[in-house]
From TrEMBL:
<keyword id="KW-0812">Transmembrane</keyword>
<feature type="region of interest" description="Disordered">
    <location>
        <begin position="384"/>
        <end position="418"/>
    </location>
</feature>
<keyword id="KW-0378">Hydrolase</keyword>
<keyword id="KW-1133">Transmembrane helix</keyword>
<dbReference type="InterPro" id="IPR000801">
    <property type="entry name" value="Esterase-like"/>
</dbReference>
<feature type="compositionally biased region" description="Low complexity">
    <location>
        <begin position="408"/>
        <end position="418"/>
    </location>
</feature>
<feature type="transmembrane region" description="Helical">
    <location>
        <begin position="28"/>
        <end position="49"/>
    </location>
</feature>
<dbReference type="InterPro" id="IPR029058">
    <property type="entry name" value="AB_hydrolase_fold"/>
</dbReference>
<dbReference type="Pfam" id="PF00756">
    <property type="entry name" value="Esterase"/>
</dbReference>
<protein>
    <submittedName>
        <fullName>S-formylglutathione hydrolase FrmB</fullName>
    </submittedName>
</protein>
<feature type="transmembrane region" description="Helical">
    <location>
        <begin position="61"/>
        <end position="85"/>
    </location>
</feature>
<keyword id="KW-0472">Membrane</keyword>
<dbReference type="GO" id="GO:0016787">
    <property type="term" value="F:hydrolase activity"/>
</dbReference>
<feature type="compositionally biased region" description="Low complexity">
    <location>
        <begin position="392"/>
        <end position="401"/>
    </location>
</feature>
<dbReference type="GO" id="GO:0016747">
    <property type="term" value="F:acyltransferase activity, transferring groups other than amino-acyl groups"/>
</dbReference>
<dbReference type="InterPro" id="IPR050583">
    <property type="entry name" value="Mycobacterial_A85_antigen"/>
</dbReference>
């Protein structure tokens, strides 16, 4: 698929130039930087014995230049494969999706939300949703992490004061963080557009941090680790409880969705299956179907077969007690993710429905994510109910599903806040 083009929404920038127009994720950039690196290394070798005056300074300067050129070439190659910074603007923090949608930092547990409402209302008047940032503490898990929350246009409108909105919990991959969902992937802009064109009902999008700090070497896969952090509890209980207590949202399971990419995709499926009382919709974008155990995750489940089975998507699908709509995607170049897609599709039985979707081209990188997101947002729009006039779905006959039992485990150690 062709990657989504990046557009400067503020115009052409200073003197007709904007950093978002300079692509970094191209073979030409890698080739040029590799050529510069080769030349720099050759010059270093040729000039090493040629310095007559101040040889230490000359050698140091040429060595630094050569090293910088090699590092830049290697970084460009990694960026081409991973799609981390598609443009110069994204590297500098000004693109592809500038942060004007983030209107305020509303403080610990959103205590400053009321003060931000006029800013949210001003953007809403122009037909735009707003994103607020907060530090969210989990009373059950002991975890404190960053989160972003998108509120749709109209949320602050007095005429909508009785409306309760559907919710999407959007989960980044590893080692991602909440701000990347907007700054790299442009999810709030995509949701804005889908709502404006009636392809998606107005919805609240919650973007919790699934990784915490340290950002690298800290992949916990959204599970309650045997002797570690209770990420499942934080995401499915603490975050959800805060949303229900603070925002006007629907509480029926059919109005709650999980969506994520890579490890976030596994998290979305696994959490939805583990908590049938909470979620009715899930999207796994290039995710997998079981908790990995590698040098980055470590042994999260302590070698316990019961915990491994309780966090295995295929196992959970066999006895899921409630309707659940799942979208599972992969690129046709993603061998492992396609295999997981096929296993999940084969294992699904009623009342669960799984829709597999394989995208042409596109490996396991952020360019592929961006290219696929419009399709995923539209799919979510078809599976989410509209805002409800009252928060009384059970009175309307919605099914209430009890939470399933989970294996006993050691009390987790709370992660320190950032």
């Amino acid at each position: 698929m062709t990657p989504i083009p990046f557009v400067d929404p503020n115009g052409d920038g200073l003197l007709g130039f904007h950093a978002s127009t300079v692509r970094l994720d191209s073979g030409a950039v890698v080739a040029v930087l590799a050529g510069v690196a080769v030349v720099a290394v050759l010059v270093l070798g040729w000039s090493w014995g040629s310095w007559r005056r101040r040889p230490a300074i000359g050698r140091s300067v040429t060595a630094l230049v050569a090293t910088a050129a090699v590092v830049a070439a290697c970084g460009a190659g990694a960026n081409l494969l991973g799609g981390f910074y598609p443009t110069l603007g994204s590297l500098l923090g000004s693109s592809p999706n500038p942060g004007e949608g983030t209107v305020a930092d509303i403080g610990p547990d959103g205590t400053g939300l009321a003060a931000a409402l006029p800013l949210i209302a001003a953007r809403s008047a122009d037909g735009h949703g707003s994103t607020v940032h907060l530090l969210l503490h989990g009373g059950r898990s002991g975890i404190t992490r960053d989160a972003d929350v998108y509120l749709p246009a109209g949320y602050t409108d007095p005429d909508n004061a009785d409306l309760h909105y559907p919710v999407v919990e959007w989960l980044s991959g590893f080692p991602g963080e909440p701000r990347e969902v907007a700054s790299l992937f442009g999810v709030p802009d995509l949701v804005d557009a889908a709502i404006a064109t009636h392809r998606m009902p107005p919805a609240v999008v919650v973007i919790p941090d699934i990784n915490g700090e340290p950002r690298f070497g800290h992949d916990e896969e959204c599970v309650d680790a045997e002797h570690g952090v209770a990420d499942d509890t934080y995401l499915s209980t603490d975050v959800a409880d805060w949303v229900r207590a603070t925002l006007r949202v629907r509480t029926d399971r059919d109005a709650w969705a999980l969506s994520g990419w890579s490890s976030g995709g596994y998290c979305a499926m696994n959490l939805a299956l583990r908590h049938p009382d909470l979620y009715g919709v899930a999207v796994s974008q290039s995710g997998y179907d079981r908790t990995p155990s590698d040098v980055v995750t470590g042994n999260l489940l302590g070698g316990r077969a019961d915990l491994a089975a309780a966090n295995d998507v295929v196992v959970a699908l066999r006895g899921h007690p409630a309707p659940l709509a799942i979208l599972v995607t992969a690129g046709d170049d993603e061998t492992d993710e396609r295999a997981a897609l096929e296993r999940v599709t084969a294992a699904a039985t009623a009342p669960v429905t799984v829709e597999p979707m394989v995208f042409p081209g596109g490996g396991h990188n952020q360019n592929a994510v961006r290219a696929q997101l419009p399709v995923i947002v539209d799919w979510l729009g078809r599976h989410l109910p509209p805002p409800h006039g009252t928060d009384a779905p059970t009175a309307a006959g919605a099914e209430v599903v009890p939470a399933p039992p989970v294996p006993a485990r050691a009390l987790p150690t709370a992660a320190p806040g950032p």
